[in-house]
Amino acid sequence: MNQGGSHVCGPSPQGGTLFASNVTFAYGSGPAVVKNVSLMVPEGAAIGIVGESGSGKTTLASLLVGLLTPTTGNVAVGGQPWSKVGRGSPLRRAVQMVFQNPYAALNPHLSALRTVAEVYQCCGGFTKTEASERAQALLERVGISDQTQGKRPSGLSGGQCQRVGIARALAAGPAVIVADEPTSALDVSVQAQILNLLSDLRQEQGVGLVLVSHDLNVVSYLTERAIVMERGEVVEEGATTELLQKPTHPYTQRLIASIL
Amino acid sequence: MTEMLLRASNIAIEIAGLELVSNVDLEVDRGHSLGIVGETGSGKSLTCRAFAGLLSPIGGRISSGSLWVGRQDATSPDTHAKAALYGRVVSLVPQNSLMALNPLMRIGTHLTETIKALDADSVVQLKARAIDLLQRVGLPDPERILRQYPHQLSGGMRQRVMIALAIAGRPELLIADEPTTALDVSVQKDILELLRRLTHEENMALILISHDLGVVAAATQSVAVMYAGMVVERGPTDTVLRQPRHPYTQALLKARPTIGHTGRLMGIPGAPASPDTWPSGCRFAPRCPHADNRCDAKVPTLETIGGGHVGACHRLHESLVLDLSKKDLLSS
Amino acid sequence: MSTEITTADINVPGHVAVRRQIQPRRIELHVGVGLILAVVVACLVIPILDRTDPNALVALPLQPPSAEHPFGTDMVGRDVFIRVFTAGRLDIALAALGVLVPFISGTVIGTVVGASRRRLVDTVTMRLTDCVIAFPFVILVLVIVVIIGADTRIPLLPPGAASVLVAVWIVNWTTYARLARARTHVLRQEDFISAARLLGFSQARIVARHLLPSVWPTTATYAVADALVLVSLIAALPFLGAGIQPPTPEWGSIMYEGRGFLLQAWWISFTTAGVLLVLGTGVMLVVDALVSNPRRPRLP
Lengths: 260, 332, 300
Prior knowledge:
The complex is a heterotrimer. By secondary structure, chain A is of the alpha/beta class. Chain A is 35% helix and 23% strand. In chain B, 30% of the residues lie in helices and 23% in strands. Chains in contact: A-B, A-C, B-C.
């Protein structure tokens, strides 16, 4: 596959930066679940978002990728707020997502190959055969062998589904991938494979990563910087190693103390 | 002085003609705690359902081997004896137990119904016994909780209620299937602490099932590691987790990311096999970095390593001891 | 403790393979399809093998079933056996046509509307379906008969069929549209639809490739059951003077005519009803099997 020029149809590298400023979000007229969060994802950086259930981390992820629109504040990709990015714009494809439940993340009616080829065909403007060839190469790269590529999600294991989901995100040539608990539904032995894959792909393709997780071990393995969220607010942020070794906020300290 | 409470020898479990668990040998002494670790499809939950007498609702049965609980043969079809056994001698906190409370019933009703069914002595003072149970599992203000509905409680509190229900029949063996999986990390530790305290105070034995080695390490005295329906290694928790001898246990330990760890994680290549495609030899062989001809040919049996530590691997004695300080010993 | 563990934990974690092995619903599907095929084949083959005119007077009236006339004869001496299976062709064809058009149009409309993020599109379509559903169906059929006239004919179909079909087409798409919209609203929350949106796929692609394949099984299940309702409806309309007119053989009119002779000649109504019952049982079995078919493996 096209390893060097991975941004098949993405924006220029400078434009890929994802930037959230003073984002607040509430569902309907309910209480704010994300409060005044600012976050910057520089080119190729890996940022962790840590928190327990109800901390607003998944909502923040949806805001970052543009699935939700902030109540106040805004999220900008390459300098453009999501509201001004059209469906067909290359900026739309610059931020992709990897989901928690690997089965629900894939269309149950499409094979692994079709799932990825569709992205090349629609986003990259490739012909059907070209798209298929590229999809084959990319799937091979993420560890889905030839024999497996024709299978639908129901014939794949959880780990394999997650690999296909990662390949689909990569096929769009994103500048940033937002991964929401990408391994919490997987077995330990498979989790390691997926974490390694994400780490390798980052290095190879220079894609930025936003990793949302409740698991501090996972965050420490993959990211350089992290924010800790509690009840919608960022309570602590900093370099991941520093944060985990010398936490200053009591909430972070409690989280670290509970690691088994 | 230790007395055997549960003894499973060589049991196999099948559902719809498919053998999902094979040759499992496990023992639990009174007041002892055993962890069972394994991944999806390893048969750990099924094994424990068998211990708790709950195979028939899912269409399963023990197809061979013997299972003794206390002084009773749990494989005998005597339903009267079984009624006396389950809930009273053995009790289960099921997986997904957060969803197991009826949303339309108050916590108090859950407790009193269960007490009525299991604990004849306490029927006269139902409420007092219910409050006592909630106090035992460390819930504050039990009077108020009795009047509440499940949705009004947090995940951690609901799990405590489930544990209270499980100990209502004063069981001698408590089985907890993934009791902390759905909980936040900070709550997880409290629940494990509670289980440890309860087993001590009530002199119960505990079987704790988890996919997470950390959970088992924190709460049990001995551990059995299961893979593809078989026990591959068993022994005192400390020994097994510090000096694992089976390649699968070693790989599991290395696959966990830990804070401060640098360099690549050692994943296990491939995915856990499904029961219809289990290899005829060692079931871990296709994913094992040390597999040779013997492993494909013959199923290894559990062999003694010493100090109650046993493992099922053909190369168990070939000094495959993992030194956990040298991470790259077994690069895959 | 046993009282607490009822349905919450019946699935063995992650055993996709096990679930594949246990498929009790297969039998129902096979039996159902078998029953439907038996009736359909009989309707196709019997009038070819025995070329007796269904309207010919072949014997004395009200003769009980015999080797020559397996379902007996009716009150004017026509062979009930031939009439029932000739009628079956018409009834099944009408049911198929009456279901297919609303099924396709309703499913597509419902999915497009459900996927649309414009409130107005949704409101307008849903109020329109409300209007159609609120209008009394029988009166609508009568109005349509007046408007298009009883003489308007659809090729190959007898007089009266056109008005019934058009009325059904106008009314029945609404149910499919509502079902499809509801299913689409559920699917819209699913991650794979979010992923498609993040990739910037066009709305048409999302509807056609990602939503419809998961929506149509739901409406198709309803369509099968709907076909049975439609057969009963077509059979009921002659009571009101609308629909297919005698002497064209039609299940409803055969049963209607036999109604007056239930005590002397039970076979006229009962054999017809029996065939309808076999078809209906087959359809219900198929619906049952389709509804309970597990589509996606669940996570542990």
